[in-house]
Amino acid sequence: MTDERAFALDRYIAATDRAIADGAALEELLAVFAPDAVVRIGPAPVRGSAALREMYGRLVASHAESRHFCTTTMLPDGRERTEWVCAARMADGSLVTMAGVEHAIVDADGRIVDLHNEFSRPPG
Questions:
Q1: Are 81 and 75 in contact (CB under 8 A)?
Q2: Could you tell me the domains of the chain?
Q3: 33-40 and 112-121 strand pairing
Q4: What top-level branch of life does the organism fall under (predicted)?
Q5: Residue 104: which residues within 8 A CB-CB, separation 6 or more?
Q6: pLDDT tens, position by position, 78-112
Q7: Hey, what's the torsion of the CAs at 95, 97, 103, 105, to 10 degrees?
Q8: Is the CB of residue 68 less than 8 Å from the CB of residue 88?
């Protein structure tokens, strides 16, 4: 299924929820990124398809379900910015909430080449 949403960050967030609901959708999530993309969510940046597959594979395996809500805008410099919130049930049955702001640089093909997240509410 092709997602025609205008913003790459919207496609990314929707694909994250789909991949958590159905691990087979992990490929759809990874397709949002350019091959050499850099993702800065945790303490150290993750770069490239193999590292992203490993990181997002762990994320998908640790969750049972999730639901994100976000508002995305285009900044004057061309970056995308989204404010997001998420409620999730983890694989162990625990519940978590989190929120943050993400910025993305997107290439001409609409794929994320650089993603930076700052939690306003860390997972917990």
A1: yes
A2: 8-121 (3.10.450.50)
A3: parallel
A4: Bacteria
A5: 8, 9, 12, 79, 80, 81, 82, 112, 114, 115, 116
A6: 999 999 999 999 999 999 999 999 999 999 999 99
A7: 20
A8: no
Q: Quickly tell me which residue has 């410099």 as its tokens.
A: 77
Which residue has 């997002």 as its token pair?
56
Tokens of 51: 């590292």
